[in-house]
Amino acid sequence: MDLTQLANLGEFVGGIAVLVTLIYLALQTRQTRAAAQESARLAAVEGTYASTMSYGHWRGLVLGDPELADLIAKANQDETLSEGERIRLSLVFEQLFVIGLTGDASSRSQGTLHSSTIDLDYVVAFLQQNPSGLPDWHRFKGIVHSLAPDYVSAVDRRLGEAGV
What we know:
Layout: H1 3-63, H2 66-76, H3 83-108, H4 116-129, H5 134-144, H6 149-161
């Protein structure tokens, strides 16, 4: 075999190596894209689960503590609350508002599979049924308005539409 034939063979082998490398890279790119899509899907499911669990935990606080449920009923009947009761009730309401706010933010960033409407509906329905939480909402919205103006405006709009 002379030098020209060896050069031609080298070019052929080099071409095959480039082709094999391109095929390998195409397969790797496909696998990486599929893994990224699966990861995003799982993150959305986890976000939805976390949001749902947050509401469940909040309901569990109220349902699991008869005193707290009585406190909410007492506030809704405009009975006088002690300072300790008022603080406790405010913290419980604030926790619901934070859950709604984070769920809404997560769904707006498409980090979950549920829509922000669910979070708005839940908070507004609670405030309709428990108007004693309205002063806490007004205080809370003043604190977070700069962070989530769309959420605050949407809750206020829905409360207005509901006549609350």
